[in-house]
Amino acid sequence: MPILAKEPACYPADLFQTAVPSAQDRWWVFYTRPRSEKTIARHLRAKNISYFLPLYKKYSKPRDRVLVSWNPVFPSYIFVFGSREARLAAIKTNLTVHEIIVHDQDEFHQDLANIYVVQESHLPYYPEHKLQPGANVTVTAGPLMGLSGRVSSWLSPLRLMAVSYTHL
């Protein structure tokens, strides 16, 4: 199967500068069929519907070749922003399994915006699955110094992947 080029993880590119949750527009979270996130994103982009699908760069080395692929940070999830019509467009792809209700739109928007900041920093990041979520932390050194969040897991004592970042 060919490895495809990186697709936009955020549509439109200025989504987090222009989107503000309101009575009309809100975040919709969909759990998708396996490996369908990018297909849904393509459908939404073709209909000019805003979405966020955070991706990370994954390297693999089959048969002495280095392949690069872009995988979802949250497999089987896509975040759609817009009105009820945007929600309906995502459902009509027949690739969503169910919807997850977002109760605090402002907090969720800020969490996604912070993930977007990390993604746009062009620093290497990827999901880590070894430890359970837990402690609140603050990054004290490095390019992301000053960000704090709740740990989802540790790679080493100096490297973390946080679900929620906030600027101090």
What does this molecule look like?
- By secondary structure, this protein is α+β, with helices and mostly antiparallel strands.
- The protein has four helices and ten strands.
- It has a five-stranded antiparallel beta sheet, with helices on both faces. Strands 8-9-10 form a three-stranded antiparallel beta sheet. Strands 4-5 form a two-stranded antiparallel ribbon.
- A hairpin with a 2-residue loop joins strand 9 (147-156) and strand 10 (159-167).
- The protein is globular.
Main beta sheet: strand number and arrangement? 5 strands, antiparallel
State the secondary-structure class.
Answer: alpha+beta
Beta-strand content bin? 25-35%
Shape estimate: globular
**What gyration radius follows from the Cα positions, in whole Å?**
17 Å
- Helix-strand string: EHEHEEEEHEHEEE
How many helix segments?
4
How helix-rich are the residues, as a percent range? 10-25%
Major sheet: arrangement of strands: 1-3-6-2-7
Question: How would you summarize what this structure contains?
Answer:
With 168 residues, the chain is α+β, with helices and mostly antiparallel strands.
Strand and helix map with partners:
Layout lengths: L9 E2 L3 H4 L7 E7 L4 H10 L3 E3 L2 E6 L6 E6 L4 E6 L1 H8 L4 E5 L4 H16 L15 E3 L8 E10 L2 E9 L1
Antiparallel strand pairs: 1-3, 2-6, 2-7, 3-6, 4-5, 8-9, 9-10
Descriptive terms for the model:
alpha+beta; 5-stranded antiparallel beta sheet; 3-stranded antiparallel beta sheet
